[in-house]
Automatic annotation (TrEMBL):
Gene: radC
Region annotation Disordered: where it falls in the sequence: 23-53
Domain of life: Bacteria
Keywords: Hydrolase, Metal-binding, Metalloprotease, Protease, Zinc
Organism: Hoeflea alexandrii
Keyword hit for Oxidoreductase: no
UniProt cross-references to PROSITE patterns, sorted A to Z: MPN, UPF0758
Record's compositionally biased regions (Low complexity): 34-44
Similarity annotation: Belongs to the UPF0758 family.
Official protein name in the record: DNA repair protein RadC
Amino acid sequence: MNDERLGAEPSDDLPQDERTYFAESRQGKTRGQALGPGADAAPAARDEHFHGHRDRLRQRFRDGGDRALADYELLELLLFRLIPRRDTKPVAKALLARFGSLAEVLGAPAHLLTEIKGVGESVATELKLTAAIAHRMLKGELKDRQVLASWTSVIEYCRAAMAFEAREQFRVLFLDKKNALIADEVQQTGTVDHTPVYPREVVKRALELSATAIILVHNHPSGDPTPSRADIEMTKLIIDTARPLGITVHDHIIIGKDGHASLKGLKLI
């Protein structure tokens, strides 16, 4: 039989875990209605308020841009498309409460996102897609530009790529003779506090790409970007390996949730 004739709600194409979460919310409202008049708004009134809220939020964004909205409201706007015809404010606030900031929500691993009630694999995937698009945009800002003259863009790009990773990553930005970006590659992924680095492999890859300079980057999942003794010694070893082959190591940047550190800026190399 046709579901509409039975009065069933049209499918939202939600994965089962998201559907279950919002079904629970509907059941709670139904129980409220059973308590008597005034316990909950009539369905038509609820729908009008619901759609009115979304329209008002969209209008505020159109009029004032992102500055007109709090972080949870921006996240709500994104979730509107991912979770249609449902109140997404509780989900947005739960995500921010769990991860701390909008950047950390988008940087969180998908399997941790799905631990939030109301977020299933499809929503987690879309959030990661949003993060990937933002990262690609930042990378695009570096294309065909002198990296050393766009240092702020370099830091923003590296933070977007690595600041909220749960494990250490060691990546290398390979530059040509004009210091334009040739390639950005993750060389190694390690544990929460260690990544094995092989200087010969770094230099070998630079030669394969005809790079004349490199910038080393790795993250500290602890959040503190302060370089360790091992970080400094490893950097000096790569410098000593690269120099005889005409490859310059411009810097080693350490990225953390709490900021970044430049070994060159700290005069450690």
